[in-house]
Amino acid sequence: MDAACSTQLIDGDGTFNVSGVDNFIKEVKLEECGLSYAVVSIMGPQSSGKSTLLNHLFGTNFREMDAFRGRSQTTKGIWIARCAGIEPCTVVMDLEGTDGRERGEDDTAFEKQSALFALAVSDIVLINMWCHDIGREQAANKPLLKTVFQVMMRLFSPRKTTLMFVIRDKTRTPLENLEPVLREDIQKIWDSVPKPQAHKETPLSDFFNVEVVALSSYEEKEELFKEQVYNLRQRFFQSVAPGGLAGDRRGVVPANAFAFSAEQMWQVIKENKDLDLPAHKVMVATVRCEEIANEKFSSFIANENWRELEEAVQSGPVSGFGKKLSSILQSSLSEYDTEATYFEEGVRSSKRQQLQEKLLQLVQPTFQDVLGHLRSGALETFKDTFEKALNAGEGFSSSADSCAQACMSKFDKGCEGAVIEQANWDTSKTREKLQRDIEAHISAVRTAKLSELTTLYESKLNVALSGPVEALLDGANDETWPAIRKLLRREGELAVYGLSDALSGFDMDKETRNNMLTNLENYARGIVETKAKEEAGRALMRMKDRFATIFSHDSDSMPRVWTGKEDIRAITKMARSASLKLMSVMAVLRLDDELDNIEKTLTVALFNSTNNNATSKSIGTIDSLASSTWEQVAPEKTLITPVQCKSLWRQFKNETEYTVTQAISAQEANRRNNNWLPPPWAILALVVLGFNEFMTLLRNPLWLGVLFVGYLVCKALWVQLNISGEFRNGALPGLLSLSTKFLPTVMNLLRKLAEEGQAPSTNSNQTTNSSAQSDVTTNGESSSSSSSSGSSPAKTVPIDTSA
């Protein structure tokens, strides 16, 4: 047996092949599978490609029809094989096709029995049907399904079987349009089937899972067909798992009992005589009318006028589309009426209706494309005219209304020329969509314009408020917050007035307008609040800058020189008072002109607490700062809490203490430099004790010269070393600095003295050389004069070189 293990299960006479099934089960080792196996069967009309589908889908080797030898019965009875490469083990049954001419008109018992057997044994039943059979009563096996539904409920306990309808040779009609029709037909069959009392209210979903798939033509689109079959094959892997195609495993017999179970089921089915199918005449009419309808459908698809019209629609709207297409459709329907005149009226009318529906389904996408072109063209026209109207300065609302009306009128006129006579299609949905698109565009433009206006005036407020508020807070004083309030009121009113005037053309309700204006006012206030919070975060830096400015500069803004006459205590108090003033200004927001006592509280608690005579009072007032809120001030207006003020003041004093100390040190050093003379008693002692030495100097003047030279040297060193300046910062720093500068300074003095000593010698040599050159020049001139005068005696002209 080959790899696919193809075996005839039931022959054409209805005989069950017991030995063949036993050999098949042994060959594929089905007995080892337990409950982990699935059974798939396929049913459908003869020569509909069932075996071809199974061979491609499951890798089997069922015999296929040779199209070159004509259409005839290929599969006789029921054949079974194992699917190649699919886990778990999957067994597939290929059923003899229905409606075969070999069995004749009346011999349909085997068809009924094999179909019922397939539903009873299989987990998954593939129902092979042509795409054009959807909606047919006979060719879609619907009467057969109706009988099978009824008999199956009577013969077997309920078991949920998957019915997978495989739509072959799918046309351009989308599957999502075909599937609802097919499912509706199946549900109608189920509803019409007489049911036993036990299953009167049982829904179809308790017995069957209905799946619908579609495949392209194997002969015309082989590659696409194989790709779709490959994708369908993936669904059969792990089919017995929960949620799989064969997920319902109720009533499944073990694999080793499959042959016995199948034999018994076939025996029960063969003994049943109640099955029946529609009359052969109706089936012939059904098949023939279907063939005529399919021919006319194919003719319509190949119609040159239709193709040109379809291609033209792809590039844009077509004038007179409705009339042209209506004429082509009517021609195809008239040809069908002529050829199907002698067939059963009910079938003929039904198939004509189906043909018309198929044709309308075919042309509907093109009709929708026409509507789409009309809609998009009208929308683009609206956008252009609307934009031009706005650029021309027209009001927003009036421009939107007039342009929208013109756009809708253009669309309605285009729809009148696109309507098809045979179809009662409603264009209101497309019109509503166009209306929604227009409204959406108007809303988007409105939002963009309003956003631009809001952003414009917000940016103006940013420029008008940020810089001035920062400058006012930097120079904080009693007039800071009144000035900020005045600035905020003025700039806010200007911005609100400008925005209100700009909104006049938008025709908006009063509430929305007021909300936008209020939001702009709040935005202006928010700018001030944000800037105040930023400046409050830099309060310590601002306080130190103000302290340094006042402490280090006098009233004329000139840098202070600490000469010893300045009152450092008073200056420090004034500078700290100014810094405390700055902190009190930045402590809270004062945009509502409310009074508070923050400055007084800070002054008493922090500034006056340094007085020695108010120690007991300061303890009580400092404790008043142990809070996170100010009295009479809302928490949301607080920028610096009392606790933070206390901490900032402590840090401020610590960081400015060094500046005060430096000033005091500089003042003391200046005083020491100015009082370099010894005290009077020391001078008197020097006079008394040094009288003898003074008299010695008077008796020997040479000592006076030595002392004078020593004085000059000491004076030069004093000046060069800047001794008074070095000792201004203290004795120890002065000594250390002088120790490093003393030797270089002495060496510099000696070098200058040496240079001064060499200067007279150099000047003398230069004078001598100049005199010699003058003598030579004079003598030459004299000789020249003598020779020119002949007998005149030579004279020597003296030259004064003392200069």
UniProtKB/TrEMBL annotation:
Annotated binding of GTP, by residue: 44-51
Annotated protein name in UniProt: Protein ROOT HAIR DEFECTIVE 3 homolog
An example Gene Ontology biological process: endoplasmic reticulum to Golgi vesicle-mediated transport
Recorded topology in the membrane: Multi-pass membrane protein
Region span, Disordered: 757-803
UniProt KW keywords: Coiled coil, Endoplasmic reticulum, GTP-binding, Hydrolase, Membrane, Nucleotide-binding, Transmembrane, Transmembrane helix
Superkingdom, natural source: Eukaryota
Cell location: Endoplasmic reticulum membrane
Assigned EC number: 3.6.5.-
Coiled-coil regions listed in the entry: none
Function statement: Probable GTP-binding protein that may be involved in cell development.
Biased composition (Low complexity): 758-774, 782-792
Cited InterPro entries: G_GB1_RHD3_dom, P-loop_NTPase, RHD3/Sey1, Sey1/RHD3-like_3HB
Pfam families: RHD3_GTPase, Sey1_3HB
Broad class of enzyme this protein falls into: hydrolase
Membrane topology, Lumenal segments: 699-701
GO cellular-component term (any): endoplasmic reticulum membrane
Transferase among keywords: no
Similarity section: Belongs to the TRAFAC class dynamin-like GTPase superfamily. GB1/RHD3 GTPase family. RHD3 subfamily.
Gene Ontology MF terms in the entry: GTP binding; GTPase activity
Membrane topology, Cytoplasmic segments: 1-677, 723-803
